[in-house]
Amino acid sequence: MSQEVIRQYLLSHHYDAWFSWECDQLVPSNALNQLVDMMNAGSFWMVNHNGWVRGHPGHTNTDFGVSLIKRDCLEQYSFLLEYGFDSDMPDSWEPGEVWIKKQVLKGGGNALEVEGIIKSIYHLDK
Amino acid sequence: MMKILIGTPIHIAKDYAMERWLQNVARLKYPADLFLVDNSPRLDYVEKIKGYCAKYGVTNYQIQHLDINQGLDPNIRVWTSQEAIRQEFLSGNYDAWFSWECDQLIPTNALDALVRLMETGNFMMVLHNSWARWGHAIVNANMGVTLISKQCLKKNRFLPHQWQGDKAWFKEQVLRNGGNYIDVYGIIKPIYHLNQ
User: Fold this and answer.
1) How many CA atoms are closer than 13 Å to the CA of A122, on its beta-carbon side?
2) Cα of A24 to nearest chain B Cα, Å
3) Distance (Å) from the C-alpha of residue B9 to the closest C-alpha of chain A?
4) Shortest CB distance from A116 goes to which of B137, B139, B175?
5) Model pTM score
6) ipTM
7) Residues 6 or more apart from A81 whose CB is under 8 A from it?
8) What are A51's strand-pairing partners?
9) Which chain B residues are within 8 Å of A112, Cβ to Cβ?
10) What 3-state class would DSSP assign to B156?
């Protein structure tokens, strides 16, 4: 619900992209510049930089913790799951970010998943 | 301009796709050498492949046959073939290996797009995902259409120490060794993953 509020805020102002950055992840000071460069390189709708799961450094975290999402994408796709709208939709809030990525691809969009470019990302657990 | 080696394991089981794939190779815009590693039983299939290459005007290629126990897990045959490609790559003067599975058809400018992305971010691997051969709703995150830099191939090999590795294992090794990669979705369109 909070992500949807942010999405609405972005759409009502003149922003080109949303930097979705979770409040328990610390990133280098040039991290956003790197995401912008990667987004521009391929005109990507989403650039998701993966980190490690909080408290489990060996497990890749593929949510929107350090992600740049283009306005075009947010104009078309909402964060509010509408159960019953799509037969593939998960019956849970938890994988909503995976679902929105899938919707982007189904809709003809594109996305970039990045590993190991932004170093270091600290995912705090205490 | 990056010098590219297209390196692909092949097997007679994929013959349903090979002729179309070699026609696709012949039409690729970006110049590249082709290195095929055949892990089929016997040598007959190599001759058939040479016939396809002649038919479509593919001339800058080499085929190596690996005599592998056909009773082994097919993944082991593929990993061994990939390692043979890596060795061939490192012995040449190439900048990147285009790992392109022989059952995936791509647009003629696909390799240009991968090269452009790799150069933009100095990435070690650019993996373009497609749909699984057995289902269009399943994302295929293997290395079917992937560009791998020399820097990456010098540090990482394809034969796992234990026989439980796969493409995910290779990616994990790249990260553990301080490398990086990008998984790309939806830039190269369409990719046809043939199943017949």
Assistant:
1) 6
2) 22
3) 26
4) B175
5) 0.87
6) 0.78
7) A89, A90, A93, A96, A99
8) A61
9) 182-185
10) coil
Locate A124 and state its tokens.
């705090």
Question: pLDDT 10s per residue in chain A (126 long)?
Answer: 788 889 999 999 999 999 999 999 999 999 999 999 999 988 999 999 987 777 776 666 667 889 999 999 999 887 766 545 556 655 555 556 777 788 888 888 999 999 999 988 888 888
Residue of chain B nearest A113, judged by CA positions: B183
Which amino acid would we find at residue B27?
A: R
CATH class of domain segment(s) A2-123: alpha beta
Rounded to the nearest 10°, the torsion over CA A35, A40, A44, A48 is: 0
- Give the residue from chain B lying closest to A88, CA to CA: B137
Is A104 part of the contact surface with chain B (CB cutoff 8 Å)?
Answer: yes
Residue type, B115: V
Which of B192, B90, B84, B83 shows the shortest CA–CA distance to B144?
B192
| Cβ pair A37:B175 closer than 8 A | no
What does the domain layout of chain A look like in residue ranges?
A: 2-123
- CB contact B187 to A (< 8 Å): yes
Q: Which residues of chain A neighbour B187 with C-beta distances below 8 Å?
A: 42, 44, 110
